[in-house]
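Hi R.,

Here's the chain you asked about this morning:
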Amino acid sequence: MNWSALQLSLQVTAVATAAIFVVGLALGVLLGRYQFRGQVFFETFIFLPLVLPPSVLGYFLLLALGRGSPLVEWLNLRIVFTWPAAAVASAIVGLPLMVQASRAAVASVDPVLENAARTLGSSEWEVLWRVTLPLARRGVFAGLILGSARALGEFGATLMVAGNIPGRTQTLPLAVYDAVQSRRYEEANVMLLVMTSLAFAGLWAVRRLEGPAYRRREAGR
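And here is the predicted structure, written out as tokens:
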């Protein structure tokens, strides 16, 4: 078992999950509650990582974060071929899942309940935190789990922008690839079991979160 790769994967996933939660929740509320000009284009841009080949997404990140990029020149930010670059790649591929789930969850909240809170003197901020998000929490958490699971399994874009440097940027998916290439099949099998178990646990948690809503829909038919 490659413990350094596992530790780095958990570290990268934790940072990516934090970014996915903050940005994804904000975008989910924005798209689930408001209509604005150019929304279709904006949504298409957000969901683009779901359909882009990982190599293309990784190349985009190299252009954005690599040498000669305005972001690098202005902010003096050099993270290519470091583990933060892997966290950025993981966050970008997991973000659309969080946005999609949180948008649907927020949009499903009954506006009557929100309007009732407003008539009782609650501000828009209070309505969001005391009414909307508590009612949408299952969908939000489901999206966060899916986004985190996708971040944990990221391979292609990470390889492009962070490389496959053992002990520095080699995450668990990259370690599996490296082990198979080197014919270390027993080590690859152990890592395969770990990643499959983590993925299964994440999907099981999502199904548990969706269970009550599914049963209510079935009962209402």
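One quick note: The chain has one domain: 3-211.

Cheers,
M.
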